Amino acid sequence: MVSTLTLVIGGVVLLVLIIILAVIVLLYNGLVGKRNRVQDASAQIDVQLKRRYDLIPNLVETVKGYMKYERGVLTQVTQLRSSIITGNMQDKAAANNQLSQALKSIFAVAENYPQLKADETYKNLQEQLMDTEDKIAFVRTSYNDYVLDYNNAVQQFPSSMIAGAFHFSRTEFFQAPEAEKEPIKVDLTSDAAQQQGQAAAQAQAPEPAAAKPSAAPKRGRKPKAPKAP
Fold it and tell me: pTM (2 decimals)?
């Protein structure tokens, strides 16, 4: 017959195994939950980036009657589209930074056109784009918080052992690389288009009154000095 000591030892071992298994399950499920929150926040960033991308052509269509900047903007947006839609998080962050600079350039130039600033469509698009910028900033902050929590779990003991065994890897933050943190100069037009924009702005200003040319002295003989008496 099995001794009581053997039963006790077997029971203790079984209890320890159950506890270890429960800890593994808890750690694994915790990592899955943290990773899912990161993925959900990443999807929210994609939604806002896509929304802004869809608004930009409408903005260009509105402003093109006032300034010849639509080609440069559309070309730049097209080049950045693949990074926004399919790139990794660093690509999306860099593209987001460049698009922000492009929009700032458009809004700055629009200040020279009072009729454009008063256009209801333009004002509505500007408000939507600014609202989208705020939402991007909010979801970016949430995403980075979730990434920090998840990366800590991946690297800290004992969850790091489960992360290594089940191939949980660190996730990158949503932030521009060091090179992209510097101010970006966006050239949206050619020299000819810039000259057209300057000419349009000058056309709105009243022309100064032309000064009358002063009458030139007539050429003739010098008057003779009077003779002394």
Answer: 0.67
